[in-house]
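Chapter summary example.
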Amino acid sequence: MNTRERWTLIAAVLGSSIVFVDSTVVNVALPRIGRELPTTIFGVLEGQSYVYNGYLLTLSALLILAGALSDFYGRRRLFLIGLIGFGLVSVLCGIAPNMEFLVAARILQGAAGAVLVPGSLALITATFTGEQQGRAFGVWAAASAGTTILGPFVGGILVDTLSWRAAFLINVPLVAVAVWATWVHVGESRNENASGKFDWLGAAVVAIAVGGLSFGAIYGQQRDWRDPVAYVALAAGVLATIAFPFLMARNPDPLVPLELFRSRNFTVTNISTFLIYGALYVTFYYVALMVQGVLGYSAAAAGLAGIPGGLLLAVLSTRFGALSGRYGPKLFMSIGPALMALGVLWFLRVPPTSAAWAFTPGDPSTWLPPRDFLVDFLPGQIVFGLGLAMMVAPLTTALMTSVPVRNSGVGSAINNAISRVGPQLAGAAIFVAITASFYSGMAARLPGTDTSDPQFRHDYPPMNVPRTNDPRAEADREESTNAFHLAVLVGAGLLAAGALVNFVGISNEVALAKGRKAEAPAAAS
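The structure predicted for these 525 residues follows.
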């Protein structure tokens, strides 16, 4: 790896990592933000929700537009704009005088982040080929996993020792390094076949499609699907989604060339992304609810519980990325999700009586996990993490080798949009089914309880189930555990479906042929 390749990879990793970190680190800062920031328009809880979801909404809605802009105007140029914009808005977040200002800054921060994620993969695609490209994707995946794992932990330290503002201001030095690396070492690349004007109408339609679906799913779940605004947003998203391909077919210079979907690997990878990331969303969400709300884990212990699988992803992604570049991604994309499904199914053994883990950083006596964690969770986490490490980098390799380099920005953006919006839609639908199962079980266990009462639905499913012999508390524990097991089965089913789709649909020859073709001119020179 030469100097240019090394610094391009560093810039790409930093650019994407700050986006992933800021989607997770804010969770640990929200309680302090709610206590310290004055608010006039929003309520405290509402404001906290907008601080988190405002970022995710603009990030999701603008991904495809940002990827297309990168291909059209130059990936290095747009990546620099995204980095500088992200750094400046991070400063605004860090100095926010009130909740309303912070919400507005987070919305802008999501817009800047939308440029960085597809841009980082496009830079790697334009710089590396063959096995080196697979290895680079593995480094990118490992770094993303590492920052996602460590983000809440580091953010918690910053919040506890300095201020919640430090969680945003820490982005500034990272952005500075990435800007320098991009300015000095990254070469410019763009879609040389692009002609005519940029498709701004297509950009508006796709933003409505992705933003409407994402907002509708998030808002509907927040409002227990009782607010018509969620249905209006979903309807707008669906209509825009239906109209989009017809609009692209009529445009001589479309935002998204429809021939991308003629690539077998591109289409199959996006279908499996929808299934696999939907499973990840459901599994992570309900594992967090189970260990904290039912079993009584502390927040720190809940974070530590997910580290074994995350470490495997961080350590092994580079290796599996290189192997997929050498042998093709099909085997890894098939076995990986299957292993993840087996790991998730292990959680079916978790009983409502599994021991709590009250990990406290200042109390060494709480640092070792209870035996129940080692039996009920750790084996599943290890198998799941191994499968995840086997799948992530090869999936990225299959995706980025399935599109021409000239369309690498928009190709990456489409997949990133699916990985964010798809799970929200699937998760919202699954959440309705699982909570319905919970309410039905509670009604059967506690005759005379009106589970349709709005107050009951406000209080249940509970976030903290007391460990007492009270019949209601016992019913809470049992039915919450049953709901968790149902979520586990759904997650495992989605993962198995993703494995099957990849096994049937992915072609190694497509990925390997592109790598050999790209390496041939370099070898000749």
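To summarize the output: Residues 518-525 have pLDDT under 50 and may be disordered.
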